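Note to self: user wants both folds in one dump. Writing first protein now.
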Amino acid sequence: TIEAIKDFVPDYIIMEVSSSCIIYERDIVAKKLKELFTNTIIITTGDIITHDIALFKSPFDISIFGEVESVILDICTGNKELSEINGIIYLENGEIIKNPDKELLSNEELGALPFPRWDLFPINKYVYYPQLNKKPVALIQSTRGCPYSCGYCSYPANQGIKWRFRSAKNIVDEIEHDIKFGFKSIFFRDPLFTLDRKRIE
């Protein structure tokens, strides 16, 4: 990762952090990145900081909780002060500030999100063996949110308990988009794929 970043000096580095590896991700990886790129803003995503805000420490600058898409644009365009951006946690004079939640994306907004720019990614490395034998494998999320809020699951923390869904046409359009890039398998990574069985049909 460091070698890849050395080719340019990014304004922002966005890191997904996990419950199992956050100490390593924060205290080793992010720290090293900050040492090399002192003016780069390090942004984290992932539910673990939402559950335990005390884990949000330097060298992290900002953490996004909830859905990322509209929040990241507010941060990176620089049109708003951090205090004006809902859905983030940030440091100010050594103090952790947690702003209010950002409103969840509607069905229409989910359907309006652009499809992935697969030409920017090493898709031939994407596998899901042994469940799917043909590679590369693309992930699609046709719904977001889960009304059950099981305590062990990160989906409600990241996507809320309101179940939202994309249209069948929008999903088929994405599948066709993926096939054009050479994907051979599709893995639906929904929190609760079968909540509405009629919709699945």
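First done. Writing the second protein, which came from a different request thread.
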Amino acid sequence: NPSVSVQAENIAGSAPYSRFDAAETTLQINQPFELGGKRFARIAAGEAGVGAAKARGLNARVAYAYDLATGYAAAEIAQRRIELAQDEVGNAEADLRVANAQVGAGKEARLRSLQAETVLQALRADLDLARANYTGALARLSALSGVAQPYTGVSGSVLALFDTSPAVGPVDPGRSTIYRTALAEREAANQRLAYERKRAIPDVTGSLGVRRLEREGANALVVGVSVPLPLFDSNRGNIAAARAEVAGAEARAEVARTEAEAELRGAIAQAEASEARVRAAQASLATAQEGYRLARIAYEGGKAPLIELLTARRNLGLARGVVLDAQAVRFTTYAILARLQGRTITGDPIQ
């Protein structure tokens, strides 16, 4: 930016300069000129800094998308656990009614009905715990969404998004927002170093002014050039600091690249393993459902003891829980993969 100065000489002194009759008043504009491409280097450094800030913002949005998706999934999982617990309680109540009927008919000892009652009470406690966990998951989801009133439920299913296996894509660390942020910060550091090197070049200041000579009643131009001598400050300290910052940024970028590549390979392997785990859990669930159905028929027909029915029902509940756990792990794996690739869980790129 230019500067403007006004200077008055030969005034308010002793004779013949006691008044303003011999005053020399100068109005001057001083304009510094940045040499050696310093202006463009400064602009490039500023733009690189803006680019790094945008990259950090994008990384933050990707991280938020991941947190929001996992928060919704946690609420859905908690809701499903309530449904599983309710089914367990319903089956346990039906088993207890059958056991009481068997005891009343003299086919079972009172101890058997007490066992069924104990199991039922434990399942009711599990149901209360599942409801409490669901309330907590909804509260966290509400906080992530930034709403004042907590949600009372969720609609739709994010776990079902991966019932059909999506394409995981190639191992490309360049899609990781963490690595892209490191690259942007490295570029910003390089541009700052280039600017600090340019700052060692002295600036030239040109001056142009008009001087009023009162005694002669005349005006005259004043022209000047000012060049600093870099005898004591050649900006070596700032250059050394910027060079060290570049070295650190390059190291962080390389670490981010190797970590992103390793995490992507691990996430892809985990995604494949989670698919196999879900298939195995669903097969076990089908077996447990058939086992419980047969055990119930056998017990109602007096061909099997109550303990076998309770065991079959417990196995069915465990199998349902295993399927839900496997689906939760699969969702988390694909959500991590989406975060590493800079996209949402639906596959849309985050801008």
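Dump finished. Worth passing along: The CA atoms of residues 123 and 339 lie 37 Å apart.
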